[in-house]
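Posted in: Structural Biology > Protein-Ligand Complexes

Title: Requesting predicted complex, manganese (II) ion in pocket

I'd be grateful if someone could produce the 3D structure tokens for the following input. Sequence and ligand are given below.
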Amino acid sequence: MKLSIVLSTHAAQFQAVAFKGDFEANVAKIATWGYDGVEVAIRDPRLVDADELARVVSAHGLVMPAIGTGQAWGEEGLSFTDPDPVVRVAAVERIISHVPLAARTGAVIIIGLLRGIVKPGVDHAQAMDWLVDALQQCCAAARPHGVRLALEPINRYETTLINNVEQGMELLSRIGADNMGLLLDTFHMNIEEPVIEDGIRACGDRIFHFHVADSNRWYPGGGHLDFESILDALFATGYQGFVSGEFMPLPDADTSAERSITYLRQIQEQLTMSQ
Ligand code: LER
Ligand code: MN
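-- Reply #1 --
Done. Output follows.
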């Protein structure tokens, strides 16, 4: 099991990111704890030095399985489904601007809250059409570079667009691009899926990335999810990607990261023994 953890290049408002601030110091700590990779949250690629970022990650023996993009929504209001076409175009351009670093590192580009919410006065079907159109443009731009995108079903309290696996799979069939898949997040699945394992099985080989947090969005082991059963179902789909920690920095960032990796490695052993 390859493990990564979310790390932001800059200070971020989003709470379920354990590490923000001094990038190299954080990468060094994450490597010391035994993680294999860092999922890097980048608001705007123009604000980061891609060479330096890639250098730091590989200098510490890590890889970058995914790039998170949600801060462009949280801090700038960019979205694929804004009624203002200027905002929609800017959102598409922003995602496409992540392609060079993704191509270089092999990272999947995450589409989380940047898809937006259905704003007052906007019809849901219209928002879905905008979403499909934007994602088709992004997939077409990413494909020649071998870059994949992953749309994350997000719970109903954060968005009104694509909350669960069924809606996510339906969206994928509308987009019709082989470089578009889903990012499943156990925190959201616990709210939206009748049975988490069934949701995983329904996605099969369309799972491009995987977030773990416990039921309360603490580190895995800090709540009541059955991670042995969840990860067993995940790997039974043939998933070869990363299991990426995206949880609250509680009781503090370092403790949450250490407890998460200790717990997940124990589960890995149990899964290996039961095979
Ligand atoms: C981002 O990966 C996520 O899970 C969302 O909750 C962002 O708000
Ligand atoms: Mn997530």
